[in-house]
Amino acid sequence: MQTIDNYNFKGKKTIVRVDFNVPLDKSTLEVTDDTRIKGALPTIKKIIGDGGSAVLMSHLGRPKDGPEDKFSLKHVVPALSKLLGKEVKFAEDCIGEKTAEMKQNLQPGEVLLLENLRFYKEETKGDEDFSKKLAENVDVYVNDAFGTAHRAHASTTIIAQFFDEKMFGFLINSELRNMDKVILSPEKPFTAIMGGAKVSDKILIIENLLDKVDNLIIGGGMTYTFIKAQGGNIGNSLCEEDKLDMALELIEKAKAKNVKLYLPVDGVNADKFDAEASTSTSAIGEVPDGWMGLDIGPETIKLFSGVIEQSKTILWNGPMGVFEMDKFSKGTSAVAHAIATATSKGAFSLIGGGDSVAAINKNKLADKVSYVSTGGGAMLEYMEGKELPGIKAIQG
Fold it and tell me: Is the pLDDT of residue 1 over 80?
């Protein structure tokens, strides 16, 4: 298999699937977070640095029926040009005669960004004819969009069949290397921290991790399904009533595999789901009637932080509470800081999933952890042991 490290792009036109699905300001339509653009820069710079030219393709948002200005990738061009330090050309369509001509005329060292792939339904359907059009007038295919690697879309998977020369970009290589470090060869003790609203969203990854981890920490809304299953009072807290048996089974499986399962011991409760709600703290299984648990409490913060700071490998996916509201963000922030502390002592820490990444960034700790993954859903599926179509298309 070709690798980007040892490939020379001189004189080659390379089409790169990047992930420029970035947030835009609602009124100015300017990029408000350029993390994903920065993630693609090493691959783009390698191609043009070798004397090749780069054709970039991406989706942006979820346009429903064809082109919409607010989802146009033309809004990304200024930020990309600035970060790259050179003018990026823009094609007003991702396929068609005019775009094929622009690709044909692209000179070594030049970069062309195509319009949003999802302006065509064929992209998400994985249409072969559409994929073939994307592959026209280019020599090499590079996939560097890990965030969409779990989708068998035209630009992430199907297009690969039209190329003999195909490889991953630096970003995907980095994602796979760091995830494999956690999954295949973790230094012990290995702690996984799972948060978020629903047990059902995390059941597969939790089951897969039970064979690998020493400690499993559960937080967030899914806590209350476990607590109710064990007979606790959870008031109006979030609960998946149909998953109570599953929660008890997971507790038993953890015991059978000698995994220490840590659930919160106290929580911060609110009288309504609101940033200005009245709050109280109680034992986790003693939420007053009419109240709901929205964050872990101070005793739980001490407990979880202690476990995390003694760990050598840490995987974090999902917040400990409704961290978007300041009143309920303490638990998530405390976990972020504990991970940073453990990392400073030599632990390897991998953070993945939109909310966990947002929490790391909000606390300005991105450079204090080992690796921040760009792919929420793709990371979860990889960790669950599933085969990702975008990865298989290149690895064969």
Answer: no
